[in-house]
Specification:
By secondary structure, the protein is of the alpha/beta class. The protein contains 9 helices and 10 strands. The structure holds NADP nicotinamide-adenine-dinucleotide phosphate (NAP). The site of NADP nicotinamide-adenine-dinucleotide phosphate has 30 residues, from helix 1, strand 2, helix 4 and strand 6.
Length: 267
Amino acid sequence: MIGKVAIVTGSSRGIGKGIALDLLKAGAKVILNGRNEERLQTTQALLKNTSDDVQYFCCDVTSPEGAKQLIDFAIQSHGRLDILINNVGVSSRGNVVDSDPEVFERVMNSNFMGSVKPTIYALEYLKKTKGSLVFISSVAGIRGLPGLAPYCASKMALRSFAESIRIEESKSGIHVGLIYVGITEIEHNKESISADGSPVVLDDRSGKKAQSISYVSKKVLKNIKRRKFITTLSFVGVLNAFLQPRFPMLVERLIIRSSKKFKEKSK
Ligand SMILES: NC(=O)c1ccc[n+]([C@@H]2O[C@H](COP(=O)([O-])OP(=O)(O)OC[C@H]3O[C@@H](n4cnc5c(N)ncnc54)[C@H](OP(=O)(O)O)[C@@H]3O)[C@@H](O)[C@H]2O)c1
């Protein structure tokens, strides 16, 4: 990865920050992204302890202007783009029956359109470098889960988007990767969107069985190095990915049986 130019969307905190750190360790030049400039500055200062090759571009990737300016910033700064990691995402909580329809729009806009827009502007540059386009999905994107309908739908949409690009660009040499991430540790005060649209602060996950951010970011780098399509993380993710296409009714019954435990875990 030495000298490669990488953009990680939504990297001022959480998983994106972890991926940015590992890319820097591997010798890449990294552009961080987020909407809060102060947070970006703090993260940049922290990552500079690892490498000076870290810049940031503050914008909302769900706006076409923001997404285009982010890609242009990489090209103006380095003249090339090798890796785009679409990591921006927000989760949701609540059953469909209780949901304000606008919650679906907000989640789709963030998780799906927030990946579509940077991708459209990045493709011409990734083609030149035969680079990597990676989508950070979730094990909740393998099948619909209770209490997470907007989130599951948005992450599932990434799958078909990635599949279309893989075929369209099969001759251009671009690598397209999709990472199904399992429940992962979160930074303090991470917010989700509740069914009525109000923000809800998620519980810290220190006592629960959650993957570490560093485990996830190492798997993302491995996906890029091996130019794999799908990387599925966590035991539940791997089991679900295996069973779902073969025995969907069995998976549904298992989820109904464990839905109370499941709700507790995803708080
Ligand atoms: N944590 C988990 O358990 C888990 C499990 C499976 C999948 N994932 C996926 O992993 C990804 C990262 O999750 P996380 O837990 O690390 O989230 P997080 O801690 O909430 O971090 C989200 C990052 O994205 C930025 N961001 C959000 N919306 C943005 C936008 N529209 N434009 C630019 N930046 C934006 C945030 O900064 P600002 O708010 O300042 O913009 C922040 O840097 C998401 O796609 C998520 O769905 C997470």
